[in-house]
Amino acid sequence: MAVVMLLAVNLLLSSALGVSVSVSGRAPQPSAAGAPTRGEVDQEAVFQGHLQLQYELLRYQWAATAIIIAVLTVVSVILGWWLAGRVLRPIRSVTSTARRLSLSNLHQRIAMQGPDDELKELADTFDDMLDRLERSTDAQRRFAANASHELKTPLALDRALLQVAFGELPEEMLEARDELLASNSRQHRLIDGLLMLAAAEHTLTNAEPVDLADLARRVLCEHPGATVDLSPALTSGDPVLVERLIANLVENAEKYNDQRRFIAVRTGTGNGGAVLTVENTGQEIAHEVVSSLFEPFRRLTSDRTESVSGAGLGLSIVAAITRVHGGTIDAVPRTGGGLAVTVRLPDMGSVLKAQLRFSTGGRG
To answer: Residue 72: CB partners within 8 Å, gap ≥ 6?
Structure first.
């Protein structure tokens, strides 16, 4: 609008100056004698000077207008960018918080300050939704943990009673005893897995420097025979959970192997983080079913469930521990059968920065 007004004023001034030239500075008429007199020459010079002055004024006027328009354009762009940033900042805060959310940091809130407008109402509604989601998730975790604890005691008592009552049995009853004890052991493993899964999905409370190579060596002491390539791989996390992650991967590689019995464990660094890879031989796995292996109680086939002991929680626990440490997990079927699982955990610096950002609600 200001630019349009400037242009209109310039056009009006140009028109007025043109009229002034034609009225006040009209060219003198020659005398009847034919030769111009001295007065006529002076009048002609005044006319030409006046006309030149009018043209100079018009030129400077348009030059000044162009400069003013350029300055106004720059100021308008800067002011518009600043205002747009202030208006969109709450939306960016909502988007950033939603992008960072996971089961391990549902405590984060937007907590927007400012006038009670539509954007603040949107942020407050989002925070209320997170409150309800966090309460629901906490209740689910407490139920799983409490139920598992309550079930462990009677199962332990049942096992003790079975061992005492069936201490001396005739030969034909030994098979039934062994089946009962095996069923009791499976229930124990299931409950232990549920407890570990509930613990793995909580926010980290004990993070310290850990080396994946050291933890892998400790796990492999109980699982000899694997091909190893262990280079230092420093990260930050709960050493108990990270060791459980490695143990579950190695145990899974042993359980679902074939007659080749090949297992490879590698640690190292890459892309600014610590990397663990566990490979094994085994049955061929379709690419489309690999992602489902990280879901609780999910197995490839019913035959696999019957032929291998386990609670079906091993890889889901691995995925939960990886998520709570801010890492990623990938599984790729191997050519000829088997699976290669790669876990990438952030380095110590990245973990500390993420924890600081979470503790400050994303403002760090």
So the answer is: 2, 3
CB-based contacts of 349, cutoff 8 Å, min separation 6:
none
CB 241 within 8 A of CB 259: no
Report the amino acid identity of residue 74: V
Q: Using one digit for the tens of pLDDT, what is the confidence trace for 142-190? A: 777 777 777 777 878 887 877 777 767 677 777 777 888 887 787 777 7
CA distance 149 to 143: 10
> For residues 291 and 299, what is the distance between their CA atoms, to the nearest angstrom?
11
DSSP helix/strand/coil, 232: coil
Q: Where are the alpha helices (DSSP H) in the chain?
A: 2-24, 38-100, 118-165, 171-200, 212-220, 239-255, 302-307, 314-324, 348-359
Residue among 191, 299, 196, 186 nearest 247 (CA): 196
- Taking the C-alpha atoms of residue 99 and residue 126, their distance in angstroms, rounded to an integer, is 13
Q: Which residue has the tokens 């996390």?
A: 237
Alpha-carbon torsion (123, 124, 129, 135), positive or negative: positive
User: Can you tell me the distance from the alpha carbon of 192 to that of 195, in angstroms, rounded to the nearest whole number?
Assistant: 5
DSSP 336: T
Give the residue with greater pLDDT, 349 vs 215: 215
199 CB-near residues (< 8 Å, 6+ apart): 145, 241
290-320 pLDDT tens trace: 888 888 776 665 444 444 555 678 898 899 8
With beta carbons less than 8 A apart as the criterion, state whether 273 and 327 touch: yes
Q: What's the rounded Cα separation, in Å, for the pair 348 and 209?
A: 7
